[in-house]
Design a protein that fits this description.
This protein is α/β, with parallel strands linked by helices. It is 43% helix and 9% strand. It is built from 17 helices and 9 strands. The strands form 3 sheets. The chain has a 5-stranded parallel sheet with strand order 2-5-8-1-9. The protein has a two-stranded antiparallel sheet with strand order 3-4. Strands 6-7 form a two-stranded antiparallel sheet. α14 crosses α15. The protein is globular. 36% of the residues are buried.
Protein backbone atom coordinates (compact mmCIF):
# COMPACT_ATOMS: atom_id res chain seq x y z
CA UNK A 1 0.00 0.00 0.00
CA UNK A 2 1.46 3.41 -0.92
CA UNK A 3 2.49 5.75 1.84
CA UNK A 4 -0.18 8.42 2.43
CA UNK A 5 0.70 11.87 1.22
CA UNK A 6 1.00 14.49 3.94
CA UNK A 7 -0.90 17.71 3.36
CA UNK A 8 1.14 20.70 4.47
CA UNK A 9 -0.19 24.18 4.99
CA UNK A 10 1.52 26.94 3.03
CA UNK A 11 0.57 29.48 5.69
CA UNK A 12 3.69 29.35 7.84
CA UNK A 13 2.45 32.23 9.98
CA UNK A 14 0.37 29.70 11.90
CA UNK A 15 3.39 27.66 13.00
CA UNK A 16 4.04 28.03 16.72
CA UNK A 17 7.57 28.15 18.05
CA UNK A 18 6.48 26.95 21.51
CA UNK A 19 4.35 23.89 22.33
CA UNK A 20 1.80 25.69 24.52
CA UNK A 21 0.06 29.01 24.95
CA UNK A 22 -2.72 28.35 27.47
CA UNK A 23 -3.28 26.36 30.64
CA UNK A 24 -5.71 24.12 28.77
CA UNK A 25 -3.11 23.20 26.16
CA UNK A 26 -0.46 22.77 28.83
CA UNK A 27 -2.47 20.18 30.76
CA UNK A 28 -2.82 17.93 27.70
CA UNK A 29 -4.55 14.66 28.50
CA UNK A 30 -2.59 13.75 31.63
CA UNK A 31 -4.59 13.46 34.90
CA UNK A 32 -1.64 14.73 36.99
CA UNK A 33 -1.34 17.82 34.82
CA UNK A 34 -5.08 18.43 34.87
CA UNK A 35 -5.07 18.35 38.68
CA UNK A 36 -2.05 20.66 38.80
CA UNK A 37 -3.64 23.17 36.41
CA UNK A 38 -6.84 23.19 38.44
CA UNK A 39 -4.86 23.99 41.60
CA UNK A 40 -2.87 26.67 39.79
CA UNK A 41 -6.05 28.43 38.67
CA UNK A 42 -7.28 28.52 42.26
CA UNK A 43 -4.01 30.04 43.50
CA UNK A 44 -3.07 32.56 40.83
CA UNK A 45 -5.36 35.43 41.83
CA UNK A 46 -5.26 34.93 45.61
CA UNK A 47 -2.02 36.85 46.18
CA UNK A 48 -0.22 33.65 47.17
CA UNK A 49 3.37 33.22 45.93
CA UNK A 50 3.67 30.12 43.76
CA UNK A 51 6.66 27.77 43.71
CA UNK A 52 6.93 25.50 40.65
CA UNK A 53 9.05 22.40 41.13
CA UNK A 54 10.15 19.97 38.45
CA UNK A 55 13.06 18.47 36.58
CA UNK A 56 14.83 20.47 33.89
CA UNK A 57 12.71 20.64 30.75
CA UNK A 58 9.34 19.82 32.33
CA UNK A 59 7.88 23.19 31.34
CA UNK A 60 8.25 25.36 34.44
CA UNK A 61 8.53 28.59 32.45
CA UNK A 62 5.65 27.56 30.17
CA UNK A 63 3.50 27.05 33.26
CA UNK A 64 4.47 30.42 34.73
CA UNK A 65 3.58 32.19 31.47
CA UNK A 66 0.27 30.36 31.17
CA UNK A 67 -0.63 31.20 34.77
CA UNK A 68 0.17 34.87 34.15
CA UNK A 69 -1.92 34.87 30.97
CA UNK A 70 -4.84 33.35 32.91
CA UNK A 71 -4.55 35.76 35.84
CA UNK A 72 -6.16 39.13 36.49
CA UNK A 73 -2.67 40.62 35.95
CA UNK A 74 -2.51 39.43 32.34
CA UNK A 75 -2.35 43.01 31.03
CA UNK A 76 0.66 43.75 33.23
CA UNK A 77 4.26 42.78 32.55
CA UNK A 78 5.58 39.28 33.03
CA UNK A 79 9.24 39.78 33.89
CA UNK A 80 11.34 36.61 33.89
CA UNK A 81 14.71 36.40 35.63
CA UNK A 82 16.99 33.37 35.54
CA UNK A 83 18.81 33.56 38.85
CA UNK A 84 21.45 31.09 37.65
CA UNK A 85 22.48 33.13 34.63
CA UNK A 86 23.10 36.55 36.24
CA UNK A 87 26.65 37.09 37.57
CA UNK A 88 26.57 37.72 41.31
CA UNK A 89 28.33 41.06 40.79
CA UNK A 90 25.43 42.26 38.60
CA UNK A 91 22.52 40.51 40.29
CA UNK A 92 21.79 43.30 42.78
CA UNK A 93 21.55 46.06 40.17
CA UNK A 94 19.60 43.79 37.77
CA UNK A 95 16.97 42.92 40.35
CA UNK A 96 16.72 46.12 42.37
CA UNK A 97 17.85 48.76 39.87
CA UNK A 98 19.87 51.87 40.61
CA UNK A 99 19.66 55.65 40.57
CA UNK A 100 21.75 58.17 38.65
CA UNK A 101 25.36 58.18 39.83
CA UNK A 102 24.93 55.09 42.02
CA UNK A 103 28.27 53.68 40.89
CA UNK A 104 30.96 54.13 38.26
CA UNK A 105 29.67 53.10 34.84
CA UNK A 106 25.99 53.46 35.76
CA UNK A 107 23.61 54.69 33.07
CA UNK A 108 23.11 58.48 33.26
CA UNK A 109 19.41 58.16 34.01
CA UNK A 110 19.65 55.14 36.27
CA UNK A 111 17.79 51.90 35.62
CA UNK A 112 14.65 50.22 36.88
CA UNK A 113 15.37 46.78 38.24
CA UNK A 114 13.47 43.66 37.21
CA UNK A 115 11.31 43.80 40.32
CA UNK A 116 10.20 47.36 39.59
CA UNK A 117 9.62 46.48 35.91
CA UNK A 118 7.14 43.82 37.07
CA UNK A 119 5.09 46.33 39.09
CA UNK A 120 1.41 45.59 38.47
CA UNK A 121 2.26 42.25 36.86
CA UNK A 122 4.12 39.04 37.58
CA UNK A 123 7.76 38.47 38.55
CA UNK A 124 9.06 35.02 37.57
CA UNK A 125 12.28 33.99 39.31
CA UNK A 126 13.58 30.88 37.59
CA UNK A 127 16.20 28.72 39.33
CA UNK A 128 15.53 30.53 42.61
CA UNK A 129 17.79 28.01 44.37
CA UNK A 130 20.80 29.63 42.69
CA UNK A 131 20.09 33.12 44.05
CA UNK A 132 23.09 34.44 46.02
CA UNK A 133 22.50 34.28 49.78
CA UNK A 134 23.10 38.02 50.17
CA UNK A 135 20.26 38.81 47.76
CA UNK A 136 17.87 36.40 49.47
CA UNK A 137 17.70 38.76 52.44
CA UNK A 138 16.83 41.71 50.21
CA UNK A 139 14.20 39.71 48.32
CA UNK A 140 12.62 38.71 51.62
CA UNK A 141 12.31 42.39 52.51
CA UNK A 142 10.64 43.13 49.16
CA UNK A 143 8.07 40.42 49.80
CA UNK A 144 7.49 41.52 53.39
CA UNK A 145 7.38 45.30 52.90
CA UNK A 146 6.17 45.42 49.26
CA UNK A 147 8.86 47.93 48.44
CA UNK A 148 12.24 47.91 46.72
CA UNK A 149 15.32 50.00 47.44
CA UNK A 150 17.28 50.75 44.24
CA UNK A 151 21.02 51.25 44.64
CA UNK A 152 21.77 54.86 45.56
CA UNK A 153 18.09 55.72 46.16
CA UNK A 154 17.24 58.00 49.11
CA UNK A 155 14.01 56.13 49.86
CA UNK A 156 12.29 52.86 48.91
CA UNK A 157 9.82 52.53 46.02
CA UNK A 158 6.49 50.73 46.49
CA UNK A 159 5.90 47.74 44.20
CA UNK A 160 2.96 45.43 43.60
CA UNK A 161 4.04 42.15 42.04
CA UNK A 162 2.80 38.60 42.07
CA UNK A 163 5.72 36.24 42.59
CA UNK A 164 6.20 32.91 40.83
CA UNK A 165 9.43 31.02 41.50
CA UNK A 166 10.74 27.82 39.97
CA UNK A 167 13.58 25.41 40.56
CA UNK A 168 14.73 21.89 39.74
CA UNK A 169 16.56 21.70 43.07
CA UNK A 170 15.33 20.45 46.45
CA UNK A 171 15.05 23.72 48.37
CA UNK A 172 14.52 21.93 51.70
CA UNK A 173 17.92 20.30 51.25
CA UNK A 174 19.46 23.69 50.45
CA UNK A 175 17.86 25.07 53.63
CA UNK A 176 19.37 22.22 55.65
CA UNK A 177 22.77 22.93 54.07
CA UNK A 178 22.50 26.61 54.98
CA UNK A 179 22.64 27.92 51.40
CA UNK A 180 18.99 28.96 51.21
CA UNK A 181 17.15 31.01 53.82
CA UNK A 182 14.46 29.06 55.63
CA UNK A 183 12.27 32.13 56.12
CA UNK A 184 12.47 32.94 52.39
CA UNK A 185 11.54 29.36 51.53
CA UNK A 186 8.34 29.55 53.54
CA UNK A 187 7.58 32.96 52.02
CA UNK A 188 7.87 31.81 48.38
CA UNK A 189 6.33 28.35 48.86
CA UNK A 190 2.80 29.56 49.59
CA UNK A 191 1.45 27.31 46.86
CA UNK A 192 3.63 24.51 45.50
CA UNK A 193 3.01 23.06 42.02
CA UNK A 194 5.13 20.01 41.18
CA UNK A 195 5.34 19.24 37.46
CA UNK A 196 5.49 15.53 36.57
CA UNK A 197 8.34 14.20 34.47
CA UNK A 198 7.55 13.39 30.86
CA UNK A 199 8.21 9.69 31.48
CA UNK A 200 5.45 9.75 34.13
CA UNK A 201 2.87 11.44 31.90
CA UNK A 202 0.05 9.45 30.32
CA UNK A 203 -0.32 11.69 27.27
CA UNK A 204 3.04 11.23 25.51
CA UNK A 205 1.35 10.07 22.31
CA UNK A 206 -0.85 13.17 22.09
CA UNK A 207 2.13 15.42 22.89
CA UNK A 208 4.25 13.87 20.13
CA UNK A 209 1.47 14.18 17.58
CA UNK A 210 0.64 17.76 18.50
CA UNK A 211 4.29 18.78 18.30
CA UNK A 212 4.55 17.20 14.83
CA UNK A 213 1.39 19.00 13.74
CA UNK A 214 2.73 22.32 15.01
CA UNK A 215 6.18 21.84 13.49
CA UNK A 216 4.91 20.93 10.02
CA UNK A 217 1.74 23.06 10.12
CA UNK A 218 -0.32 20.01 9.24
CA UNK A 219 -3.92 20.34 8.14
CA UNK A 220 -4.76 16.64 8.48
CA UNK A 221 -4.25 14.02 11.18
CA UNK A 222 -0.48 13.52 11.56
CA UNK A 223 -0.58 9.90 12.82
CA UNK A 224 0.07 8.59 9.30
CA UNK A 225 3.53 10.18 9.06
CA UNK A 226 5.02 8.46 12.11
CA UNK A 227 5.94 4.82 11.48
CA UNK A 228 4.70 2.47 14.25
CA UNK A 229 8.27 1.34 15.01
CA UNK A 230 9.42 4.96 15.42
CA UNK A 231 6.41 5.63 17.62
CA UNK A 232 7.31 2.65 19.81
CA UNK A 233 10.81 4.06 20.33
CA UNK A 234 9.44 7.49 21.25
CA UNK A 235 6.87 6.11 23.69
CA UNK A 236 9.32 3.74 25.41
CA UNK A 237 12.22 6.22 25.66
CA UNK A 238 12.65 7.67 29.21
CA UNK A 239 13.10 11.30 28.03
CA UNK A 240 15.65 12.54 30.60
CA UNK A 241 15.35 16.05 29.11
CA UNK A 242 11.55 15.94 29.35
CA UNK A 243 9.40 18.21 27.15
CA UNK A 244 12.35 20.32 26.02
CA UNK A 245 14.10 17.23 24.69
CA UNK A 246 10.94 15.87 23.03
CA UNK A 247 10.35 19.17 21.26
CA UNK A 248 13.95 19.18 19.99
CA UNK A 249 13.65 15.56 18.81
CA UNK A 250 10.41 16.26 16.94
CA UNK A 251 11.97 19.27 15.20
CA UNK A 252 14.98 17.14 14.23
CA UNK A 253 12.83 14.30 12.85
CA UNK A 254 10.67 16.67 10.83
CA UNK A 255 13.80 18.25 9.35
CA UNK A 256 15.60 15.05 8.32
CA UNK A 257 12.75 12.69 7.38
CA UNK A 258 13.09 11.41 3.84
CA UNK A 259 9.70 11.72 2.18
CA UNK A 260 6.41 11.76 4.00
CA UNK A 261 7.03 9.44 6.93
CA UNK A 262 9.26 9.47 10.01
CA UNK A 263 11.08 6.14 10.32
CA UNK A 264 13.33 4.78 13.07
CA UNK A 265 16.32 5.80 10.94
CA UNK A 266 15.16 9.43 11.20
CA UNK A 267 15.39 9.44 15.01
CA UNK A 268 18.41 10.92 16.82
CA UNK A 269 21.07 8.37 17.76
CA UNK A 270 20.00 8.06 21.42
CA UNK A 271 16.45 7.14 20.46
CA UNK A 272 17.43 5.00 17.47
CA UNK A 273 19.71 2.83 19.61
CA UNK A 274 17.27 2.60 22.53
CA UNK A 275 16.23 -1.00 23.06
CA UNK A 276 12.48 -1.42 22.68
CA UNK A 277 10.72 -4.61 23.66
CA UNK A 278 8.78 -6.05 20.74
CA UNK A 279 5.04 -5.47 21.04
CA UNK A 280 2.20 -7.35 19.43
CA UNK A 281 0.81 -5.74 16.28
CA UNK A 282 -2.52 -5.17 17.97
CA UNK A 283 -0.83 -3.04 20.66
CA UNK A 284 0.67 -0.76 18.01
CA UNK A 285 -2.71 -0.51 16.34
CA UNK A 286 -4.29 0.37 19.66
CA UNK A 287 -1.69 3.09 20.27
CA UNK A 288 -2.10 4.63 16.83
CA UNK A 289 -5.87 4.62 17.26
CA UNK A 290 -5.71 7.06 20.17
CA UNK A 291 -7.40 10.41 19.46
CA UNK A 292 -5.31 13.40 18.40
CA UNK A 293 -6.22 16.97 17.66
CA UNK A 294 -4.32 18.34 14.64
CA UNK A 295 -4.28 21.98 13.68
CA UNK A 296 -6.88 22.91 11.12
CA UNK A 297 -6.27 25.13 8.11
CA UNK A 298 -8.09 28.46 8.23
CA UNK A 299 -9.36 27.67 4.75
CA UNK A 300 -11.13 24.46 5.82
CA UNK A 301 -14.93 24.52 6.18
CA UNK A 302 -16.11 23.23 9.58
CA UNK A 303 -19.04 20.86 9.83
CA UNK A 304 -22.24 22.76 10.57
CA UNK A 305 -23.67 19.78 12.47
CA UNK A 306 -20.59 19.56 14.69
CA UNK A 307 -20.60 23.31 15.29
CA UNK A 308 -24.27 23.20 16.26
CA UNK A 309 -23.65 20.26 18.60
CA UNK A 310 -20.83 22.10 20.39
CA UNK A 311 -22.82 25.34 20.67
CA UNK A 312 -25.86 23.44 22.01
CA UNK A 313 -23.68 21.84 24.69
CA UNK A 314 -22.23 25.24 25.63
CA UNK A 315 -25.64 26.88 25.80
CA UNK A 316 -27.01 23.98 27.84
CA UNK A 317 -24.19 24.39 30.36
CA UNK A 318 -24.34 28.21 30.33
CA UNK A 319 -20.90 28.20 28.66
CA UNK A 320 -19.29 26.28 31.51
CA UNK A 321 -16.38 24.57 29.77
CA UNK A 322 -16.10 21.71 32.29
CA UNK A 323 -19.79 20.83 32.06
CA UNK A 324 -19.89 21.17 28.28
CA UNK A 325 -16.79 19.00 27.80
CA UNK A 326 -18.34 16.24 29.95
CA UNK A 327 -21.53 16.39 27.89
CA UNK A 328 -19.53 16.14 24.65
CA UNK A 329 -17.37 13.31 25.97
CA UNK A 330 -14.03 15.11 25.73
CA UNK A 331 -11.56 16.78 28.08
CA UNK A 332 -11.43 20.55 28.58
CA UNK A 333 -8.27 20.90 26.46
CA UNK A 334 -9.98 19.10 23.58
CA UNK A 335 -13.00 21.36 23.79
CA UNK A 336 -10.82 24.48 23.70
CA UNK A 337 -9.11 23.14 20.58
CA UNK A 338 -12.51 22.39 19.06
CA UNK A 339 -13.67 25.96 19.74
CA UNK A 340 -10.69 27.29 17.82
CA UNK A 341 -11.17 24.82 14.96
CA UNK A 342 -14.83 25.77 14.60
CA UNK A 343 -14.20 29.51 15.08
CA UNK A 344 -16.43 29.68 18.16
CA UNK A 345 -15.27 32.63 20.30
CA UNK A 346 -14.83 32.25 24.04
CA UNK A 347 -14.02 34.89 26.65
CA UNK A 348 -10.96 33.05 27.99
CA UNK A 349 -9.42 32.82 24.52
CA UNK A 350 -9.68 36.57 24.05
CA UNK A 351 -7.20 37.07 26.88
CA UNK A 352 -4.82 34.26 25.97
CA UNK A 353 -1.99 35.66 23.81
CA UNK A 354 0.37 33.31 22.01
CA UNK A 355 3.84 33.07 23.50
CA UNK A 356 6.86 34.50 21.88
CA UNK A 357 9.77 32.20 21.39
Amino acid sequence: MPTPTVALSTHKSHVRTTPYRSLEELCGGDPQMQELITRGKLLIDRGIPILILGETGTGKEFLSRALHAFSARRNGNLVAVNCASIPESLAESELFGYCKGAFSGALPGGMKGKIQQADGGTLFLDEIGDMPFSLQTRLLRVLSEREVMPLGAPHPVSVDVHLICATHQDLKTLVAQGTFREDLYYRIAGGVLRLPTLRARADKYQLIMQMIADELSLIQAPDQILAPAALQHMLAYPWPGNLRQMHAVVRYCCAVMNGTRIEVSDLPEDLMQFQVESSPVENVRRITALPIFPRQSHSSTPSRDERSRVIDALNGSRWNISAASRQLGMCRASLYRKLRELDIPHLRDQAMPAYAS
